[in-house]
Amino acid sequence: MTSAADTTPIWGALVAHAATMHGTNLAALFAAEPDRMHVLAHDLAGVLFDFTKLAASEETLTKLAGLSEATDLAGWTARLFAGEVVNPSEGRAATHMAERGVGSVADVAAAAVGQAKLRALANAVRADGTTRHVIHIGIGGSALGPALLLDALGAAGDGPEVHVVANIDGVALERALQRCDPATTLVIIVSKTFSTLETMTNAESALAWFAAAGIADPRGRCIAVTAAPAKAAAFGIADDRILPFAESVGGRYSLWSAVGLPLALRCGPDAFSAMLAGAAEVDCHFRDTPFPANVPALAGALDVWSATFGGTATRAVFAYDERLRLLPSYLQQLEMESNGKRVDRDGRAIAYPSAAITWGGTGTDAQHAVFQLLHQGTQVGPVEFVAVRESGHGLGAEHHRQLLGNAFAQGAALMRGRTFDEALATSNGNEALAAARTFPGNRPSATILLDRLDPRTLGVLLAFYEHRTFTAACLIGIDPFDQWGVELGKEMANAIGGEASFDPSTEALMARSGL
């Protein structure tokens, strides 16, 4: 039983088209398509999305539009916004957009209650003047999202310093505790079920730290963020310190809910609201704009074109702004946990590549580490540069000029390359040296340029990536909102130390470690 997506006529047409596009010269596409800059570069809410250096032609876009119709992208988008079931394996809607005021009336109203409680609590903590540090304990989306928000925007905040702890390795929590005074510290415990092993283990250790310091009521220093408020109450958290969110808000989509409390504490609730507003702009654009002028839909379709039809196994993302250094890690979860699937919505095996492996780093650091492979290696995949037009520092303008110059030059160099003859001309006739200095070029890239990095534009950027990921899932027929692949390792980890038996290698490792 195989997936139905690849049996449609447009799927076969795209496969055939991909064969004709193999090795297409990118520079030739610019020459052949005078409207390329208009068709493949778009401004959306203060962000420029430039896909012109990707290996796709106007004919490609026409065929991808056909695929979006054949796979009912519009229908699935309507279901998403209406709060209908779009996560069939768990029988759930995906209502994270309601946290930013978009979606069904009922979902938006329910989210507004939680948002009001978040704002009230953040204002109270910021006003009391006694909290200097916050330790935010979560894992996965409960930590990656808040960490990104704080790293990107936290320097401008005037609230308590927030430390995000995710790893079960006690070193992570211990390092945070060492930077804090128990008398002036709050702990946020984030767990959708309020039973996540890593999170609750770290929470218990934080409570022990409070108790060892003589804090009379350690649980009174805690805030719970959860979709299981009754469990948080049973744990001993007071009701006014429990911030609920809907069961239909997935972890990697949860930073818009009370999971984003660290930003509201550090920078104020207004900054948090501005981020939600920026995301809502993209929601409305995605809902109301037809393909291919729909920027997230276009990007998601181009991802499918590259990974599924082009067979590129990776997509690299490089943030040319230190404040966005955690973006590649955040996108790894968003994209690979969402679309790293082997069956479609109906449980049928997928016979074609689904999501590419997302990886990346920070420019210009990465240029001195991994760009050798990007320019001259034998593995080729699209590269995405994310940059910000306005600098985030008060130092000389030369810093930012060089930063942006490097970002733009890398994309140009990947496309242009250097011929053997050009290299030979600067190699004193040494052909071996000239071969080593030859760059094949014709390597695809995209550039995303923010006018500035503030709460609103960060909301725009992250919502763009969410809808892009959803689009890709729709075009290949998979459920982007479940994550069963996360569960098996957890189950087996919980079995260690019990009566379960394992393979000889695992048994030997356990014995050597005293487990």
Number of helices: 21
CATH homologous superfamily assignment of the largest domain: Glucose-6-phosphate isomerase like protein, domain 1
| Topology-level CATH name of the largest domain | Rossmann fold
CATH architecture of the largest domain: 3-Layer(aba) Sandwich
**How much helical structure, as a percent, in the residues?**
40-55%
Shape: globular
Largest sheet: 6 strands, mixed
What would the average pLDDT be, to the nearest integer?
95
Question: Briefly, what CATH class of the largest domain?
Answer: Alpha Beta
Strand order of the largest sheet: 1-2-11-10-8-9
Question: Low-confidence runs (pLDDT<50, min 5 residues)?
Answer: none
Radius of gyration: 24 Å
SS content category = alpha/beta
Number of domains: 3
SSE arrangement:
Elements: H1 9-21, H2 26-32, H3 36-40, E1 41-44, E2 47-50, H4 58-70, H5 73-82, H6 105-128, E3 133-137, H7 141-153, E4 161-165, H8 170-178, E5 185-190, H9 197-212, E6 222-226, H10 229-235, E7 242-244, H11 261-267, H12 269-288, H13 295-309, E8 314-320, H14 327-339, E9 357-362, H15 371-376, E10 383-388, H16 397-416, H17 420-424, H18 431-436, E11 445-450, H19 455-476, H20 487-495, H21 504-513
What does this structure look like?
The protein is α/β, with parallel strands linked by helices. It folds into three domains: 5-70 and 289-482, 3-Layer(aba) Sandwich (Rossmann fold), CATH 3.40.50.10490; 96-275, Rossmann fold; 484-515, no CATH class. It has 21 helices and eleven strands. A hairpin with a 2-residue loop joins strand 1 (41-44) and strand 2.
